[in-house]
Amino acid sequence: VAFTHKYVFDLKPDTDVYWCAADIGWVTGHSYIVYGPLTNGATSVMYEGTPDTPRPEEREGDRATWKKDRLWDIIERYGVTQLYTAPTAIRTFMKWGPEWPA
Question: What is the pLDDT of residues 54-77, one digit of tens each?
Answer without folding.
Answer: 666 666 776 666 666 788 889 999
